[in-house]
Amino acid sequence: MSAAAGGREMVEGGVMDMPSWSNLDTNVKAKRSRAYPGWHMRIGELSERTGVPARMLRYYEEQDLLHPERADNGYRWYGESAVYRVQQIRGLLDSGLTTEIIRGILPFLAEPDGIHLPAACLTAETVGQLRREADRLQQRIDCLTRNRDAIRGYLAAIQAGAAAQPALPQGE
User: Fold this and answer.
1) 16, 73, 97, 101: which one has the fewest Cβ atoms less than 10 Å from its Cβ?
2) For residue range 20-31, what is the model confidence (pLDDT) as tens digits?
3) What backbone phi and psi angles, to 5 degrees, belong to 67?
């Protein structure tokens, strides 16, 4: 660099650099990691795009469900596929699966509605876990169905009672 008029410095290619006292940010390029091509999201952006708090994303990593790359400074870098992966994890957790079961089947999920588990990977332990989980989910479904039916019955009774009562004259 060489000094130029007005406190500006010339940099490579003859481009003028802003003076050091300027608070203008002249670097407007999108943030991409040169060390990790294709890995362009930090945890905050992934959180924003998926609606999952950053703290939960770190938990997914601790549970071996999510695998970001790490930059030299320790920052997590995620690829575009992480958005879909987080949505999968969230959906499986919302359906009641444990992180242990999710960890076992996640490598075989290629699309939202299917598990593509090769027969060679289907161990007796995995079969047992999935059967127990299916039974547990069915119990939850049965309980939710009973609760829904009770609420509907309660609403029907209230509505029938309200319709049977005569309306009060206005002003009373």
Assistant:
1) 73
2) 433 333 333 333
3) -130, 80
